[in-house]
Write a structure and sequence with these properties.
By secondary structure, the chain is an alpha+beta fold. The chain is 18% helix and 42% strand.
Length: 381
């Protein structure tokens, strides 16, 4: 009988990472994690044939070299209910039986079945083929993914499938719903990233590995068939199969527009739009009139309701009027973290820009940052 004794915090971290890449089919080996004990280390691996997760830690005690499988969710439930800081696992290979002790009482034991670990879909050789693309700031990576995710189609539409992705080219993150909104995100500390496509279904687990490992830096690497997000020491990581396809054309520029522009409080703008919306039976167009340093908002249909916001002109000196989709504007404003936003208006579109010098907390260096959203105007007057 093989013996493994491990700290429950090490087990909890490893199996929470393992849960990022398991199938929800309980009767399949893809719903289990493979636990490999060898050479004084414990490696926990999961894969559903598309996603992959792995972690490694040092046990308190391990008897020889052996493998077994267990469901990550069930193991996490055991860990959370443990009455001791050390968990002991006894594995009987001949019967595929796991006896788990998570209490100081000798008569407290859980007996579970292990799949034959030889049937586990191995991807360990893939880990040896990873070519590092670069180490990037974890917080900024999450910020970019969250921002661009907000531009994806809201409903399932086969014709818009190619837009359910984050496209990364030369350090710039791009996204769109294919109809009325486009976004771009750029920060110098992510400039090493290029030619990457991250499917919508992979965004949450990719951010999950960052949250679970709590590392300031994330190492991005690729193989011919996979993309991996790992800790810098490569002791933990999450990966997924690469998407090979032509990147759509994103007609958005990182340059500052030369048309009329204002700087405005994001919260004030959202508040005023919400206030005006109370007069509408349903979301519809809002008319905006810019005169001097005041933006007046009013309803287009029904009884006239209006309010105004103080702003600061940053380009152009002429008075302008335009109509925009209220719901779309509020959704885009909500994607930005900055308190103040720059909004540029030309004949056909509205460009929202947030730019600043954000500090990289690890290197204490300043990093130029820019987030941009583009939406069409319903009408320019």
């Amino acid at each position: 009988m093989s013996v493994l004794i491990a700290d429950k915090n090490d087990l909890k971290k490893s199996f929470s990472i393992a849960s990022l890449a398991v199938s929800d089919k309980a009767d399949k080996v893809t719903s289990h994690a493979k636990v490999a004990v060898k050479e004084g280390s414990v490696i926990v691996l999961t894969t559903d044939e598309d996603r992959m997760a792995f972690s490694e830690f040092k046990p308190i005690e391990a008897d020889g070299t052996f493998d077994f499988t267990i469901e990550p969710k069930k193991m996490l439930d055991i860990i959370n209910g443990a009455e001791t800081d050390k968990i002991k696992i006894l594995y009987e290979k001949s019967t595929g039986t796991l006896n788990i002790f998570a209490s100081d009482k000798d008569d407290s034991v859980l007996s579970l079945a292990s799949f034959d670990p030889d049937n586990f879909l191995s991807f360990e050789q893939e880990l040896n083929k990873i070519i590092p693309m670069g180490s990037v700031d974890s917080g900024m990576l999450q910020t970019g993914l969250k921002f661009i995710q907000g531009f994806m189609p809201e409903e399932k539409n086969p014709k818009a499938e190619k837009y359910t992705r984050v496209y990364i080219s030369k350090g710039v993150f791009y996204g769109s719903n294919g109809t009325n909104k486009i976004g771009a995100f750029k920060i110098d500390c992510l400039s090493v990233l290029d030619d990457l496509i991250i499917r919508r279904s992979m965004i949450a687990p990719a951010m999950g590995i960052i949250e679970r490992t709590k590392q300031s830096k994330t190492l991005i690497g690729t193989t011919s068939r996979s993309v991996f997000f790992t800790t810098e020491d490569k002791s933990c990581g999450f990966g997924f199969l690469r998407t090979i396809e032509v990147t759509p054309d994103f007609p958005i520029s990182l340059d500052i527009p030369t048309c009329t522009g204002i700087s405005i409080s994001k919260q004030n703008m959202i508040k005023k739009l919400g206030w005006i919306s109370l007069a509408l039976d349903k979301e519809s167009g809002i008319k905006a009139r810019l005169k001097s340093d005041t933006l007046t908002l009013s309803t287009v249909t029904g009884r006239v309701s209006k309010d105004s916001i103080e702003c600061k002109r940053i380009s152009g000196d002429s008075d302008i009027e335009f109509i925009f989709d209220n719901r779309l504007m509020k959704s885009l404003l909500g994607l930005f973290q900055a308190a103040s936003l720059d909004i540029f208006i030309d004949k056909f579109q509205c460009t929202i820009i947030s730019s600043a010098e954000l500090e990289d907390l690890d290197s204490k260096e300043r990093s130029p940052f820019k987030a941009i959203a583009l939406m069409p105007l319903a009408r320019a007057l």
